[in-house]
Amino acid sequence: MPIKIGQDPFFKRVESGINDRQMQKAVSSAQERFQKRRREATEELGNWEEWRKWGEAIRAHTMRYLDYYLEQLSENVSKAGGHVFFARTAAEANEYIIRVIKSKQATRVVKSKSMMTEEISLNKALEEAGCEVLETDLAEFILQADDHDPPSHIVVPSLHKDREKIREIFARLGYQGSAVPEEMTRFARNYLRKKFLSAEIGITGCNFAVAESGSVVLVTNEGNARLCTTLPKTQITVMGMERLVPTWEELDVLVTLLCRSAVGQKLTTYVTGLTGPRREGEGDGPEEFHLVILDNGRSNILGTEFQSILHCIRCAACINVCPVYRHIGGHAYGSIYPGPVGAVLTPLLAGYDEYKELPYASSLCAACTEVCPVRIPLHELLIEHRRKIAEDEKKAPPGERLAMKGFRLAATSPKLYRLASKAASIMAKPLTEEAKLKTGFGPLKPWLETRDFPAPEQETFREWFQKRRKKGENS
Amino acid sequence: MRVSLFVTCLTDVFFPEVGKAVVEILERLGCEVDFPETQTCCGQPAYNSGYHLETKEVAEHMIETFEPAEYIVTPSGSCAAMFHEYEQLFSGQPDLQARARALANRTYEFTQFLTEILQVDDLGAELHATATYHPSCHMNRLLGVTEAPYRLLENVKGLKLIPLPHAHDCCGFGGTFSVKMNAISSRMVDEKAQHIEETRAGLLIGADCSCLMNIGGRLSRLGKPVKVMHIAQVLNHLRQRGDEKDAD
């Protein structure tokens, strides 16, 4: 399953995350930085809530008429001289891409950042087919150099590494300098520049495709995507089937939401719009352009209660505010899509069997929902997953099911409820010391590992109120 | 004004003093407080765990219980927010949906009721302490009550309120999350405890017993000398009295 990272089961992954203090420090300081920048960039705009509603409306409209806009996009890419391939699965996409590369008798591939190609494990497929693949996004370059360490964040894939760790990794490539970011960046730039010049194939992701003109839009800060799309003779762009906008007007809104939410910038350094291959009289651009549009499980989400997750524009704002992510890190999610968006999306794309814990890895604090630039109700979708697991799939633990049945019984019968709350205080008595529970069973056991639990009061509020009223009636 | 108190299950059994403070404050402000006897729980444990069939039965029971109420007041933003969830729970059942909507429209979190309906900011309270306030996620984000507690606390004589760093971060409770994902939850509450400690406040105030039980439980386990109070208990500390009788 290409979306999957690591082999350990969920709780094992959480444990390694929780004990990785270096990672936590890196994540926590990055989150703080991103949160501050996002807050400033959204406040500066003034009417952020209106922008969010606008973004939501655009995404909802596009999903409702997705078939129409995909056809329009496909037609316009063809008109501009490009080739379009609709891939149902990762395998279909990889096969097509390898076929294109082989037809050029090429082996040297440069890539700019793309979560979609992570999702289909394109690099692995290309390497197996004999290609030399080089990631040119700085963060992806670092991960590739670190023995293909998987991404832990969808915007900054190497977020879990600090500069010292990066220096160590670069040393393996011959770097002898310090851990100063500028110096390390210079090294990476020199290293990559040579590779760019000899590359035969450029592969990019796609932030948005514009249906009305058949264009692909890339939102980047490093400029490497432009080198990937101008130097090699053949360009292949891989996009998820939901990543498009009807016209440039909607693109304007979504790029604004994306840049401000993701990195707190008004606009990233480069926003590149590419339409087809190089035309006559143009100075640069590829001779051949291929657009691979991937389904890979997305059409199964359309028309369901989870459809709004397809509105996601991959800004990672939800990841950047998530306290769970801060403590366990991206790898603990076991998916290339971590954080709240990952906890919703991963089980949809890869199933509950492998990922049924993810929807529960949230305190439902709703910080994610609050920052989402296209108003995806992320915490509600997590609850919806839990509902599906418990009610439709019947995959919740039997003990939990029983407890909930008991809860329903008590909470709909006042008599039983009163009895249960009274029983709690009586049963707790022998376990109590200084108004704190010392031992417990069932769900109290894990609680008491790290926290005290108050012993029930001998007189419930209910009893106090009744007594007081009687007294009042008598006096 | 007639007010029906929804005390919440947690407050009923574990924090009755909070319920008492709410009754005393509301009565002092001229409200006639009643306590509908058949009330149980808002249903959130089942709802958040995905057991929506069970939740609907609990919700229907609560709708029935509070149907005669003019105003429903509860000392928990999270439970108040749960009443607001009922409507979508009954989608496809217009009759129950209308009743759920009517229930939600009459439901107020305690500080929200004080500031919005009774229009009071100053309850004449006095408490000499250095405190910090933890805003609970559901009250804050789902119910949208953000300013009311601060406005009320600002008017407590003698109370010095220190801003809590990263105040809006979740304390890690999350109901069943706290036991199901205990390792993560513990880290979250540890972080919260650390931020509280950074303020050097001797008192932690909150408006939701569930979060306070979580943070308080951790502070107590760590042996931190921080007292924990629900905002109703703070506001019930009257100026002329000045003693610490009601403080936990």
TrEMBL record, chain A:
Is involved in L-lactate degradation and allows cells to grow with lactate as the sole carbon source. Has probably a role as an electron transporter during oxidation of L-lactate. InterPro entries: 4Fe4S_Fe-S-bd, 4Fe4S_Fe_S_CS, FTHF_cligase-like_sf, Helical_ferredxn, LUD_dom, LutB, LutB/LldF, LutB_C. Belongs to the LutB/YkgF family. [4Fe-4S] cluster 2 binds at residues 322, 365, 368. Residues 309-376 form the 4Fe-4S ferredoxin-type domain. The lineage of its organism: Bacteria, Bacillati, Bacillota, Bacilli, Bacillales. Keywords: 4Fe-4S, Electron transport, Iron, Iron-sulfur, Metal-binding, Repeat, Transport. The gene is lutB. This is Lactate utilization protein B. GO terms for molecular function: 4 iron, 4 sulfur cluster binding; metal ion binding. Residues 70-294 form the LUD domain. PROSITE patterns: 4FE4S_FER_1 (PS00198). It comes from Thermoactinomyces daqus. Residues 384-469 form the Lactate utilization protein B C-terminal domain. [4Fe-4S] cluster 1 binds at residues 312, 315, 318, 372. GO terms for biological process: lactate metabolic process. Transmembrane segments: none annotated. NCBIfam families: LutB/LldF family L-lactate oxidation iron-sulfur protein.
Automatic annotation (TrEMBL), chain B:
Residues 3-83, 132-215 form the Cysteine-rich domain. It comes from the Bacteria. GO terms for cellular component: cytosol. Pfam families: CCG. GO terms for biological process: lactate metabolic process. Transmembrane segments: none annotated. GO terms for molecular function: oxidoreductase activity. InterPro entries: Cys_rich_dom (IPR004017), LutA (IPR022822). Is involved in L-lactate degradation and allows cells to grow with lactate as the sole carbon source. Belongs to the LutA/YkgE family. PANTHER family: LACTATE UTILIZATION PROTEIN A, UNCHARACTERIZED PROTEIN YKGE. This is Lactate utilization protein A. It comes from Thermoactinomyces daqus. The lineage of its organism: Bacteria, Bacillati, Bacillota, Bacilli, Bacillales. The gene is lutA.
